């Protein structure tokens, strides 16, 4: 995770700790080194204030403004702490990364769930170039109707009633002006698999 790749942005979500998962897998924990990322984007369902504090620590501990969270469908149920509640109470968020306007949503509010046409409507409503969406356990990057959609998946591989065979995953973005390189990290049978996708702003 070299900083000379540009502005590094960690995308993750659907921890569900401790309700569905004990912790982030050890191979991922070894990779997530504090002060290497400039921004963290979380698509919700963190599960506890301790996990939210760990996200803050990855960007230096005090840079809460660089931790961009939205609410997942279970955050309001599981959160009894004001710090976590305040950090994850918004349903959508728009940030600027390089030349890109980026929207963030939990994903559970999109009907039909995971439908690209519905997601495209959300992207247009938010007026963003890129939409980062949680809830969908299958990770990846999709180009659709002139926009880009990024799905980090579940950082813990938390089970889902709507997706079978969930693998733990997260995505690292290297943003350089009008270019983004997406590194998708997925834990399969104890081994970390990495794939890369690039796109540029037209």
TrEMBL record:
UniProt organism field: Thalassiosira pseudonana
One Gene Ontology CC term in the entry: endosome
InterPro entries attached to this UniProt entry: Calcineurin-like_PHP_lpxH (IPR024654), Metallo-depent_PP-like (IPR029052), Phosphodiesterase_MJ0936/Vps29 (IPR000979), Vps29 (IPR028661)
Domain of life (superkingdom): Eukaryota
Name of the protein: Vacuolar protein sorting-associated protein 29
UniProt KW keywords: Protein transport, Transport
Family stated for the protein in its record: Belongs to the VPS29 family.
Membrane-spanning residues: none
Residues covered by the Calcineurin-like phosphoesterase domain: 9-175
CDD domains listed in its UniProt record: MPP_Vps29
UniProt GO BP: intracellular protein transport; retrograde transport, endosome to Golgi
Entry keyword Acyltransferase: no
């Amino acid at each position: 995770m070299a900083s000379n790749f540009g502005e590094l942005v960690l995308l993750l979500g659907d921890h569900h700790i401790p309700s569905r998962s004990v912790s982030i897998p050890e191979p991922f924990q070894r990779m997530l080194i504090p002060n290497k990322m400039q921004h963290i984007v979380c698509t919700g369902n963190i599960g506890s204030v301790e996990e939210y504090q760990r996200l803050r620590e990855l960007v230096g501990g005090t840079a809460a403004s660089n931790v961009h969270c939205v609410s997942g469908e279970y955050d309001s149920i599981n959160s009894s702490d004001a710090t976590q509640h305040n950090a994850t109470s918004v349903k959508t968020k728009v940030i600027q990364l390089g030349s890109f306007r980026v929207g963030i949503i939990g994903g559970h509010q999109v009907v039909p769930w995971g439908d690209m046409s519905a997601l495209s409507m959300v992207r247009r409503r938010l007026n963003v170039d890129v939409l980062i969406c949680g809830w969908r356990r299958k990770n990846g990057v999709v180009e659709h109707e002139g926009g880009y959609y990024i799905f980090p998946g579940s950082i813990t591989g938390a089970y889902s009633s709507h997706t079978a065979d969930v693998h733990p995953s997260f995505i690292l973005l290297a943003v350089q002006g009008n270019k983004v390189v997406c590194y998708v990290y997925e834990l399969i049978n104890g081994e970390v698999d990495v794939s890369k996708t690039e796109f540029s702003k037209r």
